[in-house]
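Duplicate of #3305? Posting structure anyway:
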C-alpha cells in the first residue's frame, strides 16, 4: 500500500473518535454554538478525546490492534482480506466509544447542572439558559 494513502487513512482513523465525541457532545439544543470557536479550539477539542480513547483502547486491548496500523503506515504489504475485519472492528469500536463518551459527558454535565454551576463547562448557547430560566 502507498505510504501516503496509509498515513492519510491512519490520521482519519486517529481523529475519528474526537470528531464523533464533539458532534455528540454538542447535539440537541446545543448543536448551534453562536460564538464561533477558532480552529485551534476545535482542534484541541478533537485531539484530546481522540488521544484518550485510543490510549484507553490500547491499554485494554494490550496493543493487539496496532501492529496492523504500523504495517499500513510503513507501507508494507497488508493482506486486506485477512486484516479488513480487524481494521473495521477497530474503527467501529473507537467510533462507538467516542459517541458513548460524548453522550455520557453531555448527560452528566446537564443532569448534575455542572454547566450552570461552572462557567467553563457552560455551552455557548446563552439563549437556551435565558429562555429556560436556568441562569438569570
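Output from current build:
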Amino acid at each position: 500500500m502507498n505510504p501516503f494513502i496509509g498515513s492519510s487513512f491512519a490520521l482519519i482513523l486517529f481523529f475519528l473518535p474526537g470528531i464523533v465525541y464533539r458532534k455528540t457532545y454538542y447535539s440537541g439544543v446545543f448543536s448551534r454554538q453562536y460564538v464561533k470557536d477558532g480552529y485551534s479550539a476545535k482542534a484541541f477539542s478533537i485531539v484530546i478525546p481522540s488521544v484518550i480513547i485510543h490510549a484507553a483502547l490500547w491499554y485494554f486491548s494490550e496493543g493487539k490492534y496496532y501492529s496492523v496500523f504500523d504495517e499500513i503506515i510503513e507501507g508494507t504489504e497488508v493482506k486486506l482480506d485477512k486484516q479488513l475485519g480487524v481494521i473495521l472492528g477497530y474503527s467501529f469500536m473507537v467510533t462507538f466509544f467516542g459517541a458513548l463518551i460524548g453522550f455520557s459527558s453531555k448527560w452528566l454535565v446537564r443532569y448534575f447542572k455542572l454547566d450552570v454551576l461552572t462557567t467553563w463547562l457552560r455551552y455557548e448557547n446563552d439563549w437556551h439558559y435565558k429562555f429556560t430560566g436556568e441562569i438569570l
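Confirmed duplicate; merging threads. The helical segments are 3-25, 39-61, 66-74, 80-111, 114-117, 126-132. The chain has a mean pLDDT of 82.
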